[in-house]
Design goal:
The complex is a heterodimer of chains A (887) and B (330). Chain A has 887 residues and is an alpha/beta fold. In chain A, 35% of the residues lie in helices and 22% in strands. Chain A contains 31 helices and 36 strands. Chain B has 12 helices and 15 strands. The longest helix of chain B has 21 residues. The termini of chain B are far apart. The chains are: A alpha/beta (887), B alpha/beta (330). At the A-B interface, α31 of A face β6, β13 and α8 of B.
């Protein structure tokens, strides 16, 4: 019942010369007409010898159009993207094609095309299974595999989500896929933002009319859900086979997929552990439409296979940035806990103190007790089945409990996943789901969230919960219970005899707040995390005699690694900005003359509440030995005000990022010595850190030149033993951040001065590439802030790089209202003129428009970094004459 | 070498007058061609109609170069009038030059010839396209530009197109005059709060860019350039600047752009059937111009023409204010 094929219309983004049809015999021996996209002739026309062939197989209900983005300048590979028989613009034969039939049909087609290696298969959705089947049957030609939102999970019936179980039920199937085109439209509707109309139309074009859609129906029918399904054997053969292929593999994923969710990705990672993985947070099932997958593929192909002139068959051996750096002294993380517990001078002194003003009670744990508790929990976790290498997501309020669990994880080699509560619930959910945890340990509130939001991982509570709650929350047991059983085992003569983890094993995954985009998980090995602790300890001069006041709760975790006693002030740890001077004074008093750490947002509040200090409080404050704040540069005037409270303290402001916590540091005297300059002076590198600048051209792009020269503006590069290993399941992001061999590209822009000090001038992505030259946001902002009525300024740009226009959005002294950012309004003409003149005089830049707002948008965690990307987004929409979203 | 003879068509307009004056001041022999004498000192008037090929041939005769500005610039009216003046008029100029063995032609065009009805954000000049240009003015100017550029390199012709964007200056009755008048009567709407960023061109800057096109014709013939001050401003700031210069209050009436576009379409239709004495208050084309971004990448223009604007927006407004002090509004 071969039917006439319709004419192929003009498809957006598809060069008409790519279309090719040919007749090939299928597995039944009948000649069948195939439609495919073939970029071979185009490459030949451009005189390019292809490095190999990308054989792309679509799933259901799409067709070769899905892969049009793979035809691009920086992919010197021939693309052959097929429309499977019964689908797209290939023939409708009326035949029911099983999974194995489709693999055979595809092999017959590639034979007819005389396709010879190297071939990299590309498969999406059920096309992933078919391309993997082809790969197994054509190993001699196979060079690599790319899979996107697909799955070979053998226990499909359990794993199939409700939506798909419904779709495979016969009574549902026919009406939804064939009679109506709901299945198609549903798939297309998942993208956010929604697909352009012409793209949606292109996907629907070959499926107009019920007869042309029958292929979709039969495809869904062949999803081998049950064990008795005729295609089940093929599925099992392929699912087992891909574990042995051993070719370079790229898994690119859109996690917002109701069918091929993260659990399918996890399954694939277990089958192909060497695979390079990139999850495009926010992208849906049609990840090829929602994210720049083709750009990722271009990078990956070049990294892995080189070029036609300089081919290779695998990526060069992986070396993290830290391997290029001077190494820190090697030490197991947490080793000081046992050392101090066994030192009679320290054993019974406090390791962790939690102050609580409400009832005046404080909780104090000695080194001896902490050491015992860590070993008890470690033994309990091992006995419960937590294995070295398991990922353990921790959502525990910072304090003694978190410290105990965290160091127990370090001790047994479980990988701690730490996401800051400041990410907010949506951010936490993305981070938790996206880190594929094996275990989830949380306080009760977090467990309720985990249950409600379907977070993965076997669940453990911190405190023992009543049986009914335990069952409701799906909690297996508690840390309290595990510690008790661990203690019992140890008392019964079964000491904790787990080996310390290898230095190059993963230790922790830290989720960064990021002022733009979703949080990224930075993976640190034991060696790197240990070096990070050492770097912070060296910078802040911490020791058993010099304790730490952790006004920023995450830093309470540092103390035990450095052997420094830690006090957590009485505060709402979720709101570090609300720390008061009396609470801080009480914490300082508990330690004598400690180092004090606070969130940048807390500084203002400490100064504002200083008048609440009594005589003792003032005296205690004056004892602080050093004072520091990280997360954002601190204005010198704030440090000066703080020094009136803490006259003997060395006021230090470090510069760093989650990927490399300590890069440089500067104290108040250093700031005064540095004087005025472009940007914020963050001082000299801390020990074992090297800083370089990646030179930018006039468009703000870094072409590859690296310099240590002074006064050259560019992206800041760092090298240190404590630079993170990689980003979790973000191959492309890791690759970009490591594009300078042996360096971590920070994404910050700045320059070095003649005294070796680093000046930070904003984010590299926010440099202003104007027609009159390159500017950093800080240059513009500092100029605008020189206008007396301006409280704080944010610089934004509109337009394409090279001819960008500068926009300034201000908080004024009179109009500032703390809280959510308000809708910007055009500034009064006199203010606009004053800002224009100041920016022109100081930086040479022309400002096209000035707006005022009640509060500028800042990132959640630090409440201090201006979200310039949001400002640029708002400006671009508004100044284009569109309706802008809220800031 | 004797001074070149340059014909300026449409010299009675603000920009044409500025071009003719600037040429004269540089020592060229200048002829002005339009329906009524332009009356510029030291410039020879040749009167006639662009729609009459014989008139045009007479005007062009013996000129070394033509700067062709004359056009039907209105924002409404029947399309055949635009075609006759803008397309056929340009054809007559090209034919006349061709008939006398060639010469240089600076075709003064408009960025709207390549305007696709969406926001323009830092774009360079793209090819004129009558099928996509909006409204009869832009459509016919696009066709005229294609016609003129198509003649480049044939029969001794050297052609470049200069597209100044929103030209304004002292004595401008078309744009500044109308805006100021409406604002004075409280009838000037700001579409979508007037936040769209637009490029404008102070009149002498546009005139100098046009002369630069003539000076550089050997190098730049065959190319089209968008010309502006390169200082985009929001519509509200542009209007406020003019109103302040004229001493009238800045506009405050706010209208959503979508509503204005719809109203503009309706009004345009009615106006075509019952032409009045004035332009319609708002056409769809104008509504779109005033509610979406229109600013351009000026790097190629400046580099190729060896030209930069001599008068900034602020200086232009000061010159405008000085003019209004001498010509107060009644």
């Amino acid at each position: 019942m071969s039917s006439e094929l319709p004419d192929i219309p003009d498809l957006p983004g598809v060069d008409p010369r790519l279309h090719r049809t040919l007749e090939v015999r299928d597995h039944t021996g009948e000649p069948r007409r195939w439609h495919l996209l073939d970029s071979g002739p185009l490459l030949a026309e451009r005189g390019i010898t292809p490095r190999g062939t990308l054989l792309a197989v679509h799933g259901n209900p799409t067709y070769s159009f899905l892969f049009r983005s793979l035809v691009r300048e920086d992919i010197p590979w021939r693309l052959i993207a097929v429309d499977q028989l019964e689908m797209g613009y290939s023939e409708r034969t009326g035949l029911k094609r099983r999974y194995q039939d489709r693999i055979t049909d595809l092999s017959l087609l590639t034979d007819a095309l005389s396709l010879r290696g190297p071939v990299v298969t590309v498969g999406h959705d059920w096309g992933g299974l078919i391309s993997a089947g082809w790969a197994l049957d054509n190993r001699h030609d196979l060079a690599g595999m790319i899979l996107t939102n697909t799955g070979v999970h053998q226990k499909l019936e359990e794993a199939l989500p409700k939506a798909l179980q419904l779709a495979t039920a016969p009574w549902f199937r026919t009406p939804s896929t064939s009679v109506t085109d709901a299945f198609l439209r549903t798939t297309l509707s998942l993208s956010k933002p929604s697909l352009p109309r012409e793209v949606q139309d292109a996907y629907l074009a070959p499926y107009r009319g019920r007869a042309r859609r029958r292929g979709i129906d039969q495809f869904v029918a062949d999803i081998p859900a049950g064990a008795e399904h005729p295609s089940r054997a093929t599925l099992e053969r392929v699912a087992g086979g891909i574990t042995e292929l051993g070719v370079p593999t790229l898994l690119a994923w859109g996690p917002r997929d109701i069918t091929f969710s993260d659990r399918f990705l996890r399954d694939l990672i277990q089958r192909v552990p060497h695979a390079d993985v990139h999850r495009f947070e926010g992208a849906s099932h049609l990840v090829w439409e929602d994210a720049d997958v083709a750009g990722l593929v271009a990078d990956w192909l070049e990294t892995t296979f080189g070029t036609a002139e300089q081919p290779r068959t695998a990526a060069p051996e992986w070396r993290p940035v830290s391997a290029y750096a001077e190494q820190a002294p090697e030490r197991h993380i947490g080793a000081p806990i046992a050392e101090l517990a066994n030192d009679p001078r320290h054993a019974h002194r406090a390791a962790v103190v939690e102050l609580d003003g409400e009832d005046g009670e404080s909780r104090e744990i000695s080194w001896s007790l902490l050491n015992r508790r860590v070993d008890d929990i470690a033994a309990g976790l091992l006995a419960h089945g937590v294995k070295p290498g398991d990922r353990v997501s921790l959502l525990i309020t910072p304090g003694a409990d978190l410290t105990g669990v965290l160091y127990a994880c370090f001790r047994i080699g479980a990988v701690a996943v730490v996401a800051d509560a400041g990410l907010g619930l949506p951010g936490l959910t993305r981070a938790t789901i996206g880190s594929h945890p094996d275990w989830f340990i949380g306080i009760e509130r977090a467990l309720v969230g985990a249950r409600a939001l379907g977070w993965p991982g076997r669940r453990l509570s911190v405190q023992q919960l009543p049986t009914v709650d335990r069952a409701a929350l799906g909690v297996e047991t508690s840390i309290a219970e595990l510690a008790r059983s661990g203690a019992m085992m140890r008392e019964l003569g079964a000491p904790l005899n787990a080996p310390w983890p290898e230095p190059d094993a993963d230790a922790a995954i830290l989720f960064t707040s990021g002022s733009t985009g979703p949080a990224k998980g930075a993976v640190l090995t034991h060696r790197q995390l240990g070096a990070m602790f050492t770097a912070v300890g060296d910078t802040l001069d911490l020791a058993p005699e010099r304790g730490l006041v952790a006004g920023f709760a995450t830093f309470a975790l540092l103390g035990p690694a450095l052997g420094a006693p830690t006090v957590v002030p009485d505060m709402d740890i979720m709101r570090p900005g609300d720390l008061t001077a009396p609470a801080l004074a009480a914490a300082i008093a508990a330690l004598g003359s400690p180092a004090v750490f606070t969130a940048p947002a807390a500084l203002r509040n400490i100064i504002d509440t200083a008048d609440q200090l009594d005589e003792d409080g003032r005296a205690a404050m004056a004892q602080a030995a050093s004072f520091f704040s990280a997360g954002a540069p601190i204005p010198a005037h704030l440090l000066r005000e703080l020094r009136t409270l803490m006259p003997s303290a060395r006021a230090l402001t470090p510069y760093g990022m989650t990927e490399c916590l300590a890069v440089a540091a500067i104290d108040l005297d250093g700031i005064d010595a540095a004087g005025e300059g472009s940007g914020v002076c963050v001082g000299r590198p801390v020990p074992r850190v090297d800083i370089a600048i990646a030179v930018m051209d006039e468009l703000g792009t870094t072409a590859g030149e690296i310099t240590h020269d002074t006064d050259v503006i560019g992206e800041i590069l760092v090298r240190a033993p404590h630079v993170r290993d990689r980003y979790l399941m973000l191959w492309g992001t890791t690759h970009t951040a490591m594009r300078f061999t042996g360096w971590h590209a920070t994404g910050d822009v700045g320059h070095l001065d003649q005294d070796g000090r680093l000046w930070v001038e904003g984010r590299a992505a926010h440099v202003l590439a104007t027609a009159s030259g390159l500017l950093t946001p800080v240059q513009v902002e500092e100029a605008a802030e020189s206008v007396p009525t301006v409280r704080r300024a944010g610089a934004a740009v509109v337009g394409p790089r090279g001819t960008q226009q500068v926009v300034v959005i201000l908080e004024t002294e009179d109009g500032y209202r703390p809280g959510k950012p308000g809708r910007p309004r055009p500034a009064e003409p006199s203010l606009q003129e004053a800002v224009r003149r100041a920016v022109r005089d100081r930086s040479g830049a022309e400002v096209v428009a000035v707006f005022t707002t009640s509060a500028l948008p800042t990132d959640i965690r630090h409440n201090s970094k201006i979200d310039r990307a949001a400002l640029s987004r708002w400006s671009a929409q508004t100044l284009a004459g569109e309706r802008a979203e809220a800031l | 070498m004797s001074a070149p003879t340059v014909l300026v068509t449409g010299a009675s307009g603000m920009l044409g007058g500025a071009v003719a004056t600037a040429l004269r001041d540089r020592g060229a022999t200048v002829r002005a061609f339009q329906r009524r004498p332009a009356g510029i000192d030291g410039v020879q008037d040749v009167t006639g109609s662009l729609t009459e090929s014989e008139d045009v041939r007479r005007a062009v005769h013996g000129a070394d170069a033509v700067i062709h500005l004359a056009a039907k610039v209105s924002i409404s009216g029947p399309e055949h009038e635009y075609r006759a003046i803008n397309i056929e008029g340009t054809r007559h100029v090209v034919d006349a030059l061709r008939a006398q063995g060639g010469g240089a032609l600076v075709n003064v065009s408009s960025p709207s010839v390549a305007h696709l009805g969406r926001a323009i954000v830092g774009a360079d000049a793209t090819a004129a396209d009558p099928s996509k240009a909006r409204g009869p003015y832009a459509r016919t100017k696009a066709a005229a530009e294609l016609l003129a550029m198509g003649a480049d390199g044939t029969d001794g012709l050297r052609v470049t197109s200069i597209r100044p964007h929103v030209v304004w200056g002292p004595g401008d009755t078309q744009l500044v005059g109308r805006i100021v008048d409406r604002a004075r009567r409280g009838r000037l709407p700001l579409l979508d709060d007037g936040m769209a960023l637009i490029d404008t061109t102070y009149v002498t800057n546009a005139a100098e860019a046009i002369l630069a096109g003539l000076d550089r014709i050997e190098d730049v013939h065959g190319e089209s350039f968008v010309v502006s001050n390169g200082e985009p401003r929001t519509v509200r700031d542009v209007f406020a600047g003019w109103c302040e210069a004229a001493g009238v209050p800045a506009p405050t009436l706010r209208v959503p752009g979508s509503a204005a576009r719809f109203a503009g379409r309706v009004i345009e239709r009615i106006w075509e059937k019952r032409p009045g004495h004035d332009e319609p208050p708002m056409t769809e084309f104008l509504a779109e111009q005033m509610s979406t971004a229109h600013w351009f990448d000026q790097r190629r223009t400046r580099e190729r023409l060896h030209w930069t604007p001599g008068v900034s927006m602020d200086e232009g407004n000061a010159l405008l204010a000085a003019w209004y002090r001498e010509h107060p509004i009644h």
